[in-house]
Design a protein that fits this description.
Length: about 300
């Protein structure tokens, strides 16, 4: 039954939009602004998450081996570390390699570190990465209890603060996205409410001659979808142009900041924003129709 009347619903929605062209334009513009800000918030959240994930993935536990340990004992310590739950990778760094790394820091000064210190005072060590960055602290504590471990370093204090900051950023970003979505729903609901008020006499006559509720409501649903989708399309075009320009400028300037540049992911985000605009239009219409279409 609904399919047979789609043409009529479309015409009624088009007439309503043309009659209230100024209001429709204002609504599309406002929805576009809301969806644009929503898209900016989404991209910021994704880039912040990407950046935080990179920071977390770079977290490393450095395990210093007791200097009195023999080669066999050191090799056994590696096996003990690997058996700890949550350990991802383990890389051995000999004292000679550690000295070479330290020497590289002085290469620009032509400074011979080996001649200065004489006998190598650095210990053997292991560089350990946890399979889950959130387990770094727990894994470091377990490793520190193993025999032959003189010291464990994982950025104590800084790591805990990093996890708190990343958690807070994700919560704030999600809250912002939800608030912006609710604002868009409210705007569309207000527009549909005004359209219903302008056509209240026509709707009343339709109800008197026996028109079903769904028959009266469908044109408004289509109007809400059109308003939401148009606003979302405008927002996505502006957002895509702005983000691509930003990516190009960052590449040109050789910034150390790395932004998400996966075209497939970006297209999915833009598509989701367009769909979100249509969904928000339906939600706004539903609120208005259910509350104010009492004829």
């Amino acid at each position: 039954m609904i399919v047979k009347n789609l043409g009529y619903f479309g015409r009624e929605a088009r007439l309503s939009l043309s009659r209230n062209s100024l209001l429709s334009f204002a609504t599309v513009s406002t929805v576009a602004i809301c969806i644009f800000i929503l898209g900016v918030a989404v991209l910021m959240t994704i880039n912040a998450t990407y950046f935080m994930d990179r920071l977390e993935s770079d977290l490393e536990i450095v395990v210093y081996v007791d200097k009195e340990f023999s080669e066999d004992d050191t090799a056994q310590l590696e096996e003990d570390i690997k058996e700890i739950k949550g350990v991802g990778t383990v890389a051995f760094v000999s004292r000679d390699e550690a000295m070479e790394r330290l020497q590289k820091k002085f290469k620009s000064k032509e400074y011979n570190l080996s001649k200065t210190v004489g006998k190598n005072p650095l210990p053997d060590s292991y560089e350990v990465k946890a399979s889950d960055p959130q387990q770094v602290v727990a894994v470091a504590e377990k490793i520190s209890k193993l025999p032959g471990v003189s010291k464990v370093n994982y950025g104590q204090g800084v790591v805990e603060k990093l996890f708190k900051v990343t958690h807070g950023v994700r919560i704030v970003s999600m809250a912002l996205i939800v608030l912006l979505a609710l604002g868009a729903v409210f705007l569309i609901a207000t527009t549909i409410r005004l359209a219903i008020f302008a056509r209240r006499k026509e709707i009343y006559l339709m109800k008197l001659i026996g028109a079903a509720d769904w028959f009266v409501r469908w044109p408004f649903f289509m109007e809400g979808i059109v308003l939401g989708t148009l606003g979302a399309l405008v927002a996505v075009l502006l957002l895509g142009f702005g983000y691509n320009s930003l990516l190009g400028n960052l590449d040109t300037a050789n910034f150390f900041i790395s932004l998400v540049n996966e075209q497939t992911l970006l297209l999915e985000i833009y598509g989701a924003l367009v769909v979100s605009g249509a969904v928000l239009g339906v939600l706004g219409t539903t609120i208005s129709v259910n509350r104010f279409l009492d004829v």
